[in-house]
Amino acid sequence: MIVLLGAGPGCEEPVAAADLRDHIEGLCLEVCPLRIACVKDGWADGDVKACVRECADLRLYERGGEPSEALIEQLECLALLTCEELPAAVQGSERGRCAPEPVDFDSAAQQEE
Asked: What ranges do the domains of the chain cover?
């Protein structure tokens, strides 16, 4: 079985990149409603759609131009937390649990393309 990962006619991006984007966006759709409802710090101006848009920026999950497995795992971990657990994880007091590396979610909207 041959799997083509490169862009072909009518394709804009490799299949693997599209799958990763969809995976991250799905995780952001899970995390953002809780992030806004459970962490009262005004992030994304309390707008779930803005949170998802910023959270799903693939550049947040890269190190050296390549996807970082550790950063993606961090988002996966956040998606599993309860509302009670999320504030401590987001604020960094539970760094060992979900944050092997610091991620500045606020910077996504400020990065240049």
From this structure: 15-82
Query: What pTM was computed for the model?
Result: 0.70
> Over the stretch 48-79, which tens digit does the pLDDT of each residue have?
999 999 999 999 999 988 999 989 999 999 99
Tokens 């949170």, residue?
Answer: 51
Going from the C-alpha of 104 to that of each of 17, 28, 54, 71, 99, the distances in angstroms are 22, 15, 11, 11, 11
Largest CA distance in the chain: 50
Which amino acid type is present at position 24? I
Q: Residue 60: which of 46, 75, 49, 80 has the closest Cα? A: 75
How far, rounded to the nearest angstrom, does the alpha carbon of residue 80 sit from its chain's CA centroid? Answer: 13
